[in-house]
Amino acid sequence: MFSLTSRAWSPYTAGIVVGLLQIPAFYFIGTALGTSSSYVTISANLAAFVDPSISQIKYAANHMSGAKNWWQVALIAGIVLGAFISSRLSGTPRWGASPFWAKAMGAHTPARRYMMAFLGGFIMVLGARIADGCTSGHGVSGIAQLAIGSFIAVTAMFGAGIITANLIYKRV
Amino acid sequence: MSVLSAMLLGLAMGAIFGMALEKGRVCEGGVIVCQMQMSRHAMLKMFLSAVITGLIVLSVMVGFGLAKLSPKATLFAADIVGGAILGVGIVIAGACPGTVLAQIGTGYKDAIFTFIGGLFGALAFTYMEPNILKPVLTSGAYGKLTLDQLLGLPFPAVALSFAAILIGLLVWLEKVSPWREEIGPNADGVPAESPPKGAMPAKA
ipTM higher than 0.90? Predict the structure, then answer.
């Protein structure tokens, strides 16, 4: 069930593992699992090289330092590491873009996919910061805490996602 | 906790998180998009399993006084507008802010563009937040509202009942649409081209 060399775990096993990570998050860090605020920590610290006045913005200053913020930056670095190890152990490394995109979009070039990925990433994190959370912060963690705001945000996320996915892609 | 020890703990937790995202196959854009088309449900199954586990874990921790919950404030306008923008972005990117890092780990090149786009998105928000976005962010603010407060019941009672309902939903979902078929032969969310020759007809 937990074999690191198998290509896939059941989504139930994988989900339970993620849910159990709430224990160290709450016990040691005093916060819930989340990923999208680390984008602010990283980008604001990088932007400070070009525009030192960014630290005058309260929102940036709140995210630029401190154990909680850098814990989350390390968490997302760990995700890259864990997925790398996992995919190599099971023999499912990937490259380029998934063959899924050619099927879902018809005419497809890598350059077009890379542009879409950049655009999608921009919109995704902008939205996550407006809502103050993403699939993990609002979704996995917010709903587990029965937060009303998280129920609203996740409903809006799936609602808009379902409409968009059915409008812009072919069924695969 | 010092920044360094928090980061070491974060790295270890992230490695487990990343393995789970990779093994659960939500590191595949196809799995995310097909979920949003509501044609296959591997992502929803993993997502709800994580929610259910969280509900149970937090019920126990709150019950024994081991954790203090930190629910996000209810910001009616921001939750709807931001959530919707997030949903559109997830579909275009084929990733969530967390799963994109698992995509990078598996080797997908497009995910690097998604991540860099995300950094610029965070930066755009940071610069717009004090002026342009303030009205959206502050209208319909109700503070830290939770379902158990609204119902006037203890957190563990509501959380465990809700978990039981979600477990029922997953049992039904798995019956209707088994996860192995949803993942596809190459574990990338792309289904088999056509049934192999001489295959037994699928059971009704």
Answer: yes
